[in-house]
Amino acid sequence: MDIGNLAIWVVIGITALVSFKGFDNVYFFRKYDFHIGSIRAGEQYRMFTSAFLHADPMHLIFNMYALYLFGFDVIWGMGVLEFVIIYFASLICGNLLTLYFHKNDLFYRAIGASGAVMGVMYSSIVMFPDKQLLLFFVIPMPSYVLGIGYLLYSIYGMKAKADNIGHTAHFGGAIGGLVFTLCKMPQLFQTNTLVVVLLIVPIIILFFMARSGKI
């Protein structure tokens, strides 16, 4: 097994072990989840540990499958160290954005590696925008189309607040992965100009909506 495979499987393995412990131990789950009240009281470690917990096995499988699907693109495009940095930086970015938008909701809770995985996904998208994906495992489309659509859907989800999906963490993680990749590979501004612009537009929309109090 090469170091790239090892890095991805180590992340998947640790996440699975911690998640399964959380499935069976409510005290453990509540001690390490993302909880605004506890974080504001000084338990900042939850900003990190919450990414290793999941609601159920399907939640875990979906996130780890997405990581496996896009992780090798990042490793191939930039390297193992960069993959690790993107994963954990996006994890923190997702939780920081969540903390910002929900700072006054002391009972807000969240778990899952989605923010970190989104960072890896959007890093892959900006490097390989024409990669073919299957929406709902059926509809083929280039990765950049899915990426742009999902950012816009996340904004809608953040505004509607009609489900239990962590749209804010997803969006923050995507920003983390996108920004790191563009900083590391500024040539993408020239080679993938249109895709970069289209991915940045939803971020600008979110910024203005937040400033105007619409989200």
From TrEMBL:
<feature type="transmembrane region" description="Helical">
    <location>
        <begin position="134"/>
        <end position="153"/>
    </location>
</feature>
<feature type="transmembrane region" description="Helical">
    <location>
        <begin position="188"/>
        <end position="210"/>
    </location>
</feature>
<dbReference type="GO" id="GO:0008233">
    <property type="term" value="F:peptidase activity"/>
</dbReference>
<dbReference type="Pfam" id="PF01694">
    <property type="entry name" value="Rhomboid"/>
</dbReference>
<feature type="transmembrane region" description="Helical">
    <location>
        <begin position="74"/>
        <end position="99"/>
    </location>
</feature>
<feature type="domain" description="Peptidase S54 rhomboid">
    <location>
        <begin position="42"/>
        <end position="184"/>
    </location>
</feature>
<keyword id="KW-0378">Hydrolase</keyword>
<keyword id="KW-0472">Membrane</keyword>
<feature type="transmembrane region" description="Helical">
    <location>
        <begin position="48"/>
        <end position="68"/>
    </location>
</feature>
<keyword id="KW-0645">Protease</keyword>
<dbReference type="InterPro" id="IPR035952">
    <property type="entry name" value="Rhomboid-like_sf"/>
</dbReference>
<keyword id="KW-1133">Transmembrane helix</keyword>
<feature type="transmembrane region" description="Helical">
    <location>
        <begin position="106"/>
        <end position="128"/>
    </location>
</feature>
<dbReference type="InterPro" id="IPR022764">
    <property type="entry name" value="Peptidase_S54_rhomboid_dom"/>
</dbReference>
<keyword id="KW-0812">Transmembrane</keyword>
<comment type="similarity">
    <text>Belongs to the peptidase S54 family.</text>
</comment>
<dbReference type="GO" id="GO:0006508">
    <property type="term" value="P:proteolysis"/>
</dbReference>
<dbReference type="InterPro" id="IPR050925">
    <property type="entry name" value="Rhomboid_protease_S54"/>
</dbReference>
<protein>
    <submittedName>
        <fullName>Rhomboid family intramembrane serine protease</fullName>
        <ecNumber>3.4.21.-</ecNumber>
    </submittedName>
</protein>
<feature type="transmembrane region" description="Helical">
    <location>
        <begin position="6"/>
        <end position="27"/>
    </location>
</feature>
